Amino acid sequence: MSSAKHTIISPAILYWGTPVVLVTSENEDGTSNIAPISSAWWLGHSCLMGIDAESKTTRNIIRTNECVLNLPSDSMGDYVNKLADTTGSNPVSDSKTSRNYKFVKDKWTRAGLHSQTSDFVTPLRIAECPVQMECRVVQINDLWKDLPGRSGLALAIEVRVLRIHILQNLQMPGYPNRVDPDKWRPLIMAFQEFYGLKDGKVAPSVLSRISEEKYRPLTGSDVTELLEDKS
Predict the structure, then answer these.
(1) Do residues 187 and 80 make contact, with C-beta atoms less than 8 angstroms apart?
(2) Which residues lie across from 42 on neighbouring strands?
(3) Residue 4 carries which DSSP code?
(4) Cis amide prior to 91 (ω within 30 degrees)
(5) pLDDT by residue (tens digit) across 74-121?
(6) Which of 39, 106, 158, 203 would you call most buried, defined as having the most Cβ atoms within 10 angstroms of its Cβ?
């Protein structure tokens, strides 16, 4: 047994480490907004995002029910930093003003990013991101309902992934629908700092013995029904 002792702390945030996501959404005038978030997790082909209720991205997603989740690689920290303290809302909210955010209308030019059209949703994809996921909203939930002073300030938005675009060099050889985890290098946010996965696997995984296809949540007919619902 380890002799190290535990202590009690109360951090302001609990960002233990999740991939950075650049969320693209459509503004009212048809232009695109880009916002970096770091509270997102996936199960099957669903994603749950934790996001500021008053942000421009949130309002866009609620209005259109669509977004694209773009995953930057660990070499894209500079792009994310150029967006980190910006907002598409004008005027800037009090909470973001207190954190020195500034309004930027054209975030593509600001960050030096380029757009690609999507297949099933209106928001654009970010060409520089090695993974891009076209998504539609399934459900929106209030967070912190048990905290009267903070209730309604953040939302948990569940989206369904309709289509995944990935760089070919990230595909596992011999498997048309698998990502090679030895090549995937996401940009990780942990306690407001950027990290990567360059050290590789640290131990064999028992779960890797199970065929990945056994976890597939949707059949071809399921996807067809989702897309037909929009038309």
Answers:
(1) yes
(2) 47
(3) P
(4) yes
(5) 999 999 999 988 989 888 888 788 888 899 999 999 999 999 999 999
(6) 39
Task: Calculate ∠ Cα 65-29-27, nearest 5°.
Answer: 40
In degrees, to the nearest 5, what angle opens at C-alpha 155 toward C-alphas 153 and 161? Answer: 160
Q: Which of 199-228 are b and which e, b meaning 16 or more Cβ less than 10 Å from the residue's Cβ?
A: eeeeeeeeeeeeeeeeeeebeeeebeebee
Q: Which residue(s) pair with 69 in the sheet?
A: 23, 133
Q: Where are the domains of the chain?
A: 18-230
Fold (CATH) for 18-230: Pnp Oxidase; Chain A (2.30.110)
Pairing of strands 66-71, 154-166: unpaired
| Predicted confidence (pLDDT) per residue in 9-25, tens digit | 998 888 899 999 999 99
Task: Name, in order, each residue with C-beta under 8 angstroms of 216's C-beta and a sequence gap of 6 or more.
Answer: 44
The residues, ordered by sequence, that sit 6+ positions from 62 with a Cβ below 8 Å of its Cβ are 137, 140
- Which of helix, strand or coil describes residue 52? strand
CA distance 37 to 174: 33
The sign of the CA dihedral 120, 121, 127, 130 is: negative
